[in-house]
Amino acid sequence: MNAEMQPLFWRISDQDKSGFEAVSLLMPAGMAGEESAEFPTEVCFRSNRSSTHPVDLRWSEEDSDLFMNLLDRLMDADDGEDIEVDLSDNVVQGIVQLVALARFKTPWPTDEITGEDIITEREELEIGDLVALNTSFGYALAVIVGIDSIDATCVLMDSLMK
What we know:
Layout lengths: L8 E5 L6 E8 L9 E10 L8 E4 L2 H14 L15 H15 L25 E6 L2 E10 L4 E5 L6
């Protein structure tokens, strides 16, 4: 799969002046006459910015790497084969949502919510793996979006209920 991508941007805007910034994916106009396209996500965060003008941030290399890694896990493309990604596709929008969450939401430690240790066989994990997190509220489905030798950063797919 060819990882060359058109530059993408995050658009951060406080459209309703609520103090919460909404995150959208912005694809700038490519060829002459094309309009730029904006795809909203469900990601928002509290901001103390005084300006209500939108801010456009270019995707980081980490954003692109995570997007391509997650996309590669879902696509059946041969190595070296070019693929065209439709940003209006629900699966692709789900991947964009995961990338936005990984970029704009601050991870919090799970020390207070982890369940009892269980004896299990350890497996090597990779970015994009689906995992079940043992919490004091039960098992929650999550996707690994970052990993190092000690910690893994996950986006929860299930809500935690008390």
